[in-house]
């Protein structure tokens, strides 16, 4: 009976050691998975922030282009007033209802088109804002894939797993914020492009009309 109990005890110990080994392997696999999640979310954050930065710079560039377009429109208005004065001197000897220069009026634009866009004027890029999203997370040092250092005990492993999961939770919130900011920048950029298309078409029409009127005067 004593030998049987000893054999049973040895078998039980082997089963217990096997279960402990499996549990350790599971913890290690879970730890590596959470580390990989943190790495992937860091890459997603970097990509999202890079996209946001590029959109902000594009927004600033479009704002400068729109400002130049407004200046061109202002110059065309000034030139049109001068041309009207010249035309009034030429019309003294003709019937205005039949004069070609009187008929070549440019198409009227939407009065709201050339109103100053307050939001667009203040959208200048600031390099200090690039770290805006980083302030919300406190990333822990990453473990090198070539030298994966594992905690010596199960408590250390579980602690790191919890820390990694907390960090992933923070980065998920950051990604949501970045996605909303990127969407807002895309919307603003599309609105600027629409305005630029309308303003370009308006300036082209004005230039064509003034060219015809100048040819008549010449």
Automatic annotation (TrEMBL):
Organism: Allacma fusca
Highest taxon above the source species: Eukaryota
UniProt name for this protein: t-SNARE coiled-coil homology domain-containing protein
PANTHER family named in the record: SYNAPTOSOMAL ASSOCIATED PROTEIN (PTHR19305), SYNAPTOSOMAL-ASSOCIATED PROTEIN 29 (PTHR19305:SF9)
PROSITE patterns assigned: T_SNARE (PS50192)
GO BP, one annotated term: vesicle fusion
GO molecular function, one term: syntaxin binding
InterPro entries: T_SNARE_dom (IPR000727)
Family: Belongs to the SNAP-25 family.
């Amino acid at each position: 009976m004593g030998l049987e109990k000893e054999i049973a005890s040895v078998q039980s110990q082997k089963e217990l050691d096997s279960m402990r080994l499996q549990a350790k392997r599971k913890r290690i696999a879970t730890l590596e998975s959470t580390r990989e999640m943190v790495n992937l979310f860091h890459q997603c954050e970097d990509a999202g922030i890079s996209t946001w930065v590029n959109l902000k710079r594009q927004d600033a560039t479009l704002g400068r282009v729109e400002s130049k377009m407004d200046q061109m429109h202002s110059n065309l208005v000034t030139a049109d007033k001068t041309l009207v004065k010249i035309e009034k001197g030429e019309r003294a000897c003709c019937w205005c209802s039949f004069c070609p220069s009187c008929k070549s009026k440019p198409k009227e634009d939407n009065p709201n088109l050339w109103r100053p866009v307050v939001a667009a004027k203040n959208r200048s890029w600031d390099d200090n804002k690039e770290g805006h999203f980083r302030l919300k997370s406190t990333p822990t040092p990453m473990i090198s894939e070539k030298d994966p250092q594992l905690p010596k005990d199960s408590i250390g492993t579980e602690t790191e797993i919890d820390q990694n999961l907390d960090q992933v939770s923070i980065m998920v919130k950051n990604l949501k914020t970045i996605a909303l900011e990127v969407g807002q920048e895309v919307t603003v950029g599309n609105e600027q492009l629409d305005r630029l298309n309308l303003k370009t078409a308006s300036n082209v029409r004005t230039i064509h009309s003034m060219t015809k009127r100048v040819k008549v005067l010449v």
